[in-house]
Amino acid sequence: MSQNPETITAETTPSFFARTGVQTEVLPIGPGIPFGLERVYNAELGIGGVYGSWGASYDNAALRTFIEGRLGEPMQDNEVMNLAELGFLHRHHLPDLSEADHLELELEVGARLLREAARVNGWEPSEVQGVLIGMSGPVATDYVTQVARRAGLPEHALKVSVHKACDGSMGALHLALNPDLTAKNQVNVAEALQGKKVLVGGIEGLSRFTSQARDKNALQLFGNGAGVIGVIPGRTMKFLVGRSHEAFDQEGLLEVRMFYPYSGSSDGGSLVEVSQESPDHVRVAGRMHEPADGSPVVMAGLMGMVKLFVRTGVQVVADVMRDYQALMQRLGTPDKPIAVAIVHHANYKINQLKAKQLGKEGIRFPMPWLLSEFGNVSAASNMIAFLRQLPHIRPGDHVLFDGFGAGTYYDVMAVAFGS
Question: Given a cut of 80, is residue 379 above it in pLDDT?
Answer without folding.
Answer: yes
